[in-house]
Amino acid sequence: MHIVHLISVHPAFDVRIFHKEAKTLVKVGYNVVLIAQHTKEEIVDGVRIVPLPKPRNRFDRMTRVVWKLSILALRERADVYHFHDPELIPVGLILKLFGRKVIYDVHEDVPEQILNKDWVGNSIARKIVSL
Fold first, then answer.
1. Are 103 and 83 within 8 A, CB to CB?
2. CB atoms near residue 99 (< 10 Å)
3. Of 54, 63, 83, 105, which alpha carbon lies 20 to 30 A from 92's?
4. What pLDDT, in 10s, does the model give residues 29-87?
5. What architecture does CATH give domain 2-130?
6. What is the rounded distance in angstroms from the CA atom of residue 84 to the CA atom of residue 90?
7. What does the pLDDT look like over 104-113, one tens digit per residue?
8. What is the number of alpha carbons within 13 Å of residue 92 lying toward its C-beta?
């Protein structure tokens, strides 16, 4: 089985995603790919890392980098896509439209975080959280 982890915010070697999830899946025989911000394509502990460009700013990360991640994800033709960042929900929906199995694994209290971000206006934040 081919499993792809998609991350746009967390570092490539995030303890939970890389060390606890991806490496464990490799140990039990799965083909695991991690698409994340990284400097080069390489295989580390059996996990193939596909690099994403480093974003210039938050807007760049949420547009250009997420677009690039979407293309790379579709190219993988994985059995399962496992993503970890709320900004990747549109990517997950696109993958679902293509009939792919998708896991959304959020680690944080996202509604609370959105309410506490000063770059998101209060009225916008409340509308987002209400969804």
1. yes
2. 6
3. 54
4. 999 999 999 999 999 999 999 999 888 998 888 889 899 999 999 999 999 999 988 88
5. 3-Layer(aba) Sandwich (3.40)
6. 12
7. 987 655 555 5
8. 19
